[in-house]
Amino acid sequence: MGNKMEVNLIFKIAAVGILITILGQVLKHSGRDEHAFLISLAGLVLVLSWIVPYIYDLFEMIQKLFGL
Hints:
Blueprint: H1 2-29, H2 33-66
Helix pairs in contact: 1-2
């Protein structure tokens, strides 16, 4: 089940990236650069909120591995 969740996470990140890219390009071409920046920032925060628990688990595993 763990591997399936990781693959789903990769697909979700890719989907968000594609969607943010399309929305950003549409907003930039319509002259709304500020909105395009905010959309990109929101996408970054969303993806980081998905990835942070995995990074935390990685650091915990490294601590256990090296006995820190």
